[in-house]
Amino acid sequence: MSFQNTLNFAQKLDADDALRKYRNEFHFPKVNGKEVIYFTGNSLGLQPKRTQKFIDGVMADWKNLAVEGHFYAEKPWWDYHERLAAPLAKVVGAKTKEVSVMNTLTVNLHLLMVSFYRPTKTRYKILCEEKAFPSDQYMFQSQVKWHGLDPDDAIVELKKRDGEHFWRTDDILKKIAEIGDGLALVLIGGVNYYSGQVFDMRTITAAGQSVGATVGWDLAHAVGNIDLKLNEWNVDFAAWCSYKYMNSGPGNASGIFVNEKYLDRKDIPRFEGWWGTKKNTRFLMKPEFDPMPNADAWQISNAPILSVAPYLASLEMFEEVGMKALIQKRNTLTAYLEYVLHEIDAETENSDFEIITPKERGCQLSVFLHGQGRPLFDYLMKNGVITDWREPNVIRLAPAPFYCSFVDMYRFGKILKQGICAQVNQ
Ligand SMILES: *Cc1c(COP(=O)(O)O)cnc(C)c1O
C-alpha cells in the first residue's frame, strides 16, 4: 500500500479499520486534557473498560457468599482458572490441555526449568540470547548455581555479528550444532524485548531437539502480538505474562504451555501442590499426588481469583477479535508508523532515525535516534506521546493494534517533528 503523511489519509485508514470500535473499549490516560498516544502496550497494556465488571463480580461474590463462593459463585472459584485455557490456547496455537494460568512469569519459568532443565555431568549447557531480559539472566544464573554448576561455563549466550542489531538464524543453528551433546536447554525470548526481533521458533526448536536438548520460549513480548503455533512447532514448554499485549493489569498472572507429550505423566520431576492434583479427589485430602492430566498439573496453589478475573476479561476480547484480525491491522499500522518515521526523518536535517528492528517483527519498532537524545524523549512524554527510552539512545514504539489508531501515528509524526525543531531552537 502506498501511504501519505496527511490527516486525511490517516482518517481514511481509521474509517476502513475493522477493529476501530475497540479503541473505545479501553481507558486512555490524558495529558494536557487529551488522550495520549500510547506506544507502551509492550510494557503495560491499557485497561479494558469491561475489566471492572469482572473484578466487581468476584468482589460481590466474596461479599455475599464468602467461602461458599468456591462452589456457588456465578463463576465458581475452585475451577475459575479453567475458563482461561481454551481462549488462551487459541492465542498461542496450543491444545486447551497444554495451557494453564498461574503465578507470574519468572516464577513460572523457574518452575518449568525444574521440570525441563535436568543437567547431567556432560549435558548441562543452557543456550540463551546475549543481553536477555535481566530477570531471565538472573534466573539462568541462579538455576545453574542451584545445580552446583558454574554460570560462566553452563550459560552460553548467542552473540550478534559486529555492527548488526539482530540475530541470524543460521548463526543460532551453528551454535546449537557446536554445543551438540552438551546442550541441555535452549530458552530464548521469542520476541526480543529490546529490538522487537521475532525469532524463527519453529526452526530453532527443531534444531535444539535434534541434538537432544529441550527447547522453551519466554513469550512475554510475543503473546497477543504475533502468530504462535506452539503445538505445531513442537515447542517443549513456554511461559508469558499477561500485562503486556494481553492487557490484564500490572504484574498480573502468567500463562504456561507444556507440550502434550509431557502431560498425564507421573515420572516428570516437578514442584507440586494441591491445585495440581486431580479435581475429583483433591478435597479428599489424600497424601498421594495424582496429577491433573493437563498443564494444570504444574499448578501449586489455589488460583488468585482477583488476578485471574481481569485476564478472563481480556481473553473475552481476544476471543471476539481473533489473532488473525489483530495481526492484519498490526501489519498495516506498524508499516504506517515506519512510513511516518521515514517522512519526518527526511523533513528534518538534524536527525537520523535508524529502525533497528529487523523485518521479522511484530508491532514494535525500536528506533535509534542518531543526532537526538534524551531531551527529545522528554519532549514527547510532555506532549502526550507515551513511549520508553532504552540506553544508549533508543526509543521503543509499540502501536498495539487493539487500541492504537492511524491518526495516532500521524499525530505522533507531527509532535516528533515539532520536538526535533524545538531542540534546534534551544
Ligand atoms: C516483561 C518480561 C519479564 C517480566 O517478568 P515478571 O516475572 O513478569 O516480572 C520477563 N522476561 C521478559 C523477556 C519480559 O519481557
UniProtKB/TrEMBL annotation:
Top-level division of the source organism's lineage: Bacteria
Cofactor: pyridoxal 5'-phosphate
GO molecular function, one term: pyridoxal phosphate binding
Sites of N6-(pyridoxal phosphate)lysine modification: 244
Chain residues that bind pyridoxal 5'-phosphate: 105-106, 133-136, 218, 221, 243, 274, 302
InterPro entries listed in its UniProt record: Kynureninase, PyrdxlP-dep_Trfase, PyrdxlP-dep_Trfase_major, PyrdxlP-dep_Trfase_small
Purpose: Catalyzes the cleavage of L-kynurenine (L-Kyn) and L-3-hydroxykynurenine (L-3OHKyn) into anthranilic acid (AA) and 3-hydroxyanthranilic acid (3-OHAA), respectively.
UniProt-recorded name of the protein: Kynureninase
Gene from which this protein is expressed: kynU
